[in-house]
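User: Could you check the structure of this?
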Amino acid sequence: MDKKMLKRTRIFISIVAFIFIVLSARLAHLQIFQFEQYWGRAEKNRLRILPITAPRGEIFDRYGRQLVSNRPGFTVSLVDLGQGYDDDTISYLSRLLEMEEEEINEKIRSQYYRRYLPIRLKTDVSMEIVSKIAERRMELPGVVIEVQPIRHFVYGNFASHILGYMGEGTVPDWVMEQWEKDGYKYQVGDLVGQAGIEMAWEPLLRGVDGGIQVEVNSTGQAIREFERVEPKPGDALYLTIDTRLQQVTEQALCEVVQGLLDENNYYAGEAAAVVLDPRSGAILAMASIPSYDPNTLRLDFPDLVKDQRRPLVNKAIEEHYPVGSTFKMVTALAALQEGVISQGEKVYCGGTVTRYGATKSCYRKTAHGSLNIFQALQKSCNIFFYEMGLRVGIDTLAHYSREFGFGNPVGLTDIFGEKKGIVASREYKSSLYTDPWYPAETMDAAIGQSFHSITPLQLANYVAIIAGRGTHYRPYLVQKVVDSEGNIKMIAEPELLHFVELDDANWDIIQQAMSLVTMPGGTGARLADFPIKVAGKTGTAQVVGKDGSIPSHSLFVAFAPLEDPEIALSVFVKHGESGGSTSIPVARRILEAYFQITEEQ
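Assistant: Sure, the predicted structure tokens are below.
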């Protein structure tokens, strides 16, 4: 071999040796120095942790009747196999699941922190969809079918505003802050309670998710299981609601509303009722009409949000209304306690009265003659209470209004959304107008008109305070919490929030006067034949309209039995005409159900 050839051979060998050294060094770097990194990536490609959703806590009524349970359902999820998400797969899923591609991409972007974990695209899909995905699973990399517990509301639209519903929608910041206080941190995309008990008690209902480690093939399908951590079910809630009483309340309201619509009362369509135990504050029934079915909410939602009656709004706590003559016990008690009227003093009613340049009248200008405070409440005489309002003045009247829970939330925390309502006062008027407060406005406020605006829950709480002779208990809906092992975590106890201090004699007068309302000659005489003595008060809240043809709201509040009250209630029928015509029949149905009174009795 000549020198030239030898030189070339040496150069070739040097190059080969150099390449070998570089490759060996690179291999050593990958195998030794970056072993853990690449081993982890390989394992991520081969192994997956699939979450196992914890069964949500079930919900029962006060007697253990199941209201909300769980059933198995299929969920379509998408997993990143390490190479991003396939556009063709997303396009196919968009058509199959009837979702916009942008909606799927938004889920991917919002949940990027969960990379390598399934991103749930749609829950509770049909077997037809599951079958179509199974047929094409080799063509759909990263598509996974999971079995999840799906919320089932046993009685459909029963108590829907109490129970609420589930969803992935936006959660308000203040709700997330409340959840964090209770130990749960919300993540975007979580299926959570969106209203009612489901929202307020989310941290206890949701449980703790488990997980399963599986080996997956190239398309992301599980082929072998390695390790499983079982989920911990959420806590069960036992409510104060009586299912039978709730059903009667809802049915009675629905029938009254439908009757008004059948009579071409186009303004009607909404109603609410609340039933409390005045001895504790426990809510026995709370109904808002119209309602919705949480089981089909996803399908019904477009129609529900277009409905002018706003079925998604809980009228019992999230709306406040003028209350008319149901307010008159406040005026009467203020007058008695301030000493501006005695139980025997009479005021003359001639049907109309003119004071401070304003002419006011009784309902339909009825002339009642001379009445004492008992007769004035029994017949709901406006003239009498105009006089009482002028005697005590607006500031004192506003003070007593707040004493009975008006103008502020009454304390319900088991569901969110309670509005505080409005108390007619100088302060409130000055927030709207520059005009001073006029005495004629005090006359209106004294009979429940003017700026007064009160929720049905506040009305029920108000009459419960009267029944309890001043005790204001916090209204509540959750009686007991039981964990998945059967241990009792919480039992609610009556919580006294406030006590209205009035003379015992004045409580006696008002309770006796309210009992006369439901006797012959009273505005609530439709209950005169009721076998248990009921104390009540009707209300007709007038609605201002251009032509005066808009029907008034119908209201009724009551407690029973008179001597030892067990139940307090309020009924509100929007545009239901006079106080006794539509609200009393509903109240009677509620009382009959509670006391288990049949027609034969």
